[in-house]
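Box 3.1 A note on notation
Throughout this textbook, protein chains are presented in two layers. The first layer is the amino acid sequence; the second is a token string describing backbone geometry. Keep the layers aligned when reading.
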Amino acid sequence: MSIRWFTLLLMLLGLAGACGETTRPEITPALIEKSLTGRTIEQAKFLKTWRFDPAEPRQLTIVQQKVSGDQGRVLIDLKTQELSSSPDGCSGQVWLEYEWLVDQWVLTRIVSISFECT
């Protein structure tokens, strides 16, 4: 099943359960950590991708957060280090886009603003 079909299915299930509740929980650093694990981000400057490994050390700070209805957008400062790679690792700012699906925030898009690996 493609991601697009899976997302559509989750949206339909979410609509069935959306009985007037409009308040959504905050997108927390813990949720961001969990939703980044296993995902990749493109580093435009180097035309490479970085995969967020579950065991790698990460530090993140929420710089800005905006939630409107079922959409959430979070700007974070992120520093991470691959366990077997350069000791300098990767760092920079990243936009994360979330969608409220089936009673939870789901990360739908990761955009590098200044995230680079050295």
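The two ends are 36 Å apart (CA to CA). The chain has one domain: 26-117.
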